[in-house]
Amino acid sequence: MKQLFNYYPLAEYEAELTERYGSFGAYLTACGLDGAEVFLPTEYHKDLARHTVGIHLPYLPHWTAFWKGDEVRLRGQFASREEQRAYFGGADTREEWTERVRASIRRALCYKPEYLVWHVSEADSDEIYTRDFHYTNEDVLEATAELFYCVADIIPHDVPVLFENLWWPGLTLTDRRETEAFFRLIDRDSAGIMLDTGHLMNTNTALQSEEEAADYILRTVDSLGDLASRIRGMHLQCSLSGDYVTHALRRRPRELSAETEMAHIAAIDEHRPCQTDAMRRVIDHIRPSWLVHELYYDNLSHMHTMLTKVQHLLGLR
User: For residue 263, what is the enclosing H or E element?
Assistant: First the structure.
C-alpha cells in the first residue's frame, strides 16, 4: 500500500517547499509518504511528475443537462449562453466538450500516473442547498458511462480509472444494483473505485462518531459483494457533518458568491483528519493499493503536522 497526499501546485505551496523543505521529495520523506495524488494542473510540472502517483482529473459540479441537451434546464442554470460556454471551457456542444475532456486526460497521462480519479456526481448551485435534485443516480451514472465511452480509447488499460463516490446524485455506493449497472456500462476490467471515506459518511447524516462511521462504511462495502474488489484506492478523511446538514436552511442564499458556496460545501464535506483509530478497521478490511490522505490544509507545514498525528494514530508509520 502506497501512502499519498492530495496536492495542487499553488505558488505558495511551491515556495514553502523550497524555503522550508528544500524539495518535494524531501517533503514526502519528512511526511513518510510515497508520493502525491495531484489535482491536474493547467501546465505541466516536470519536477512534480517524478513524485506523482495518481492524477485527479478536473470535474464540473453540474454537467448532465449539457450532456443531455436539456436547453430548458441550462437556461435556468446560466444567465447567458456566454456564461454557459465559459463554464464548459469554451464548448458549445457536447462533442466540443468531449474534446476538452480528452485533452485533460492527455495532459494527465503526461505524468505517467499509476491511476486516474474521476468524480461521478451532479449538483448545481441551487441543489447543494435545497437538496431537491433534478437528476437521479441512474441518470448521472448513465451519462458518466456515455462520456467515458467517448474518451476511453486514449486511456491505457494498465492505467486504471478509479471512479470516486460522492453523496450527491451519481456514484454513492449505497445501492449495489446501481453500482453493478454502472460498471457493466463502463465495461473495462481495470476500472475501479476510489472510496472516499468522508463522502460515504456524508450519505448518512445520523452518524455521530468515527466508530459509527467505520461500522457504516464496512457495512456499505460488504453490501457491494464482489464489487468491493474494485475498491483499489481510498481517500482517507472524516466528515461528520450531519448536524450541519440537518439544520441548514434548505434554500439558496439571496446573496450567493463562490466563497459562500465553497464554505457551504466545506461545511458538509469536512475533510478532517481522524481523531481516533476507528478508520484502521476500514483500511485493514479494504487493503487499498493507494491510501490518499485527503485533507483540507492551510499550508504544507499544517499538512505535515496532521499527517504525522494520523499516521501514528492509525499505526501507519
Answer: helix 258-268
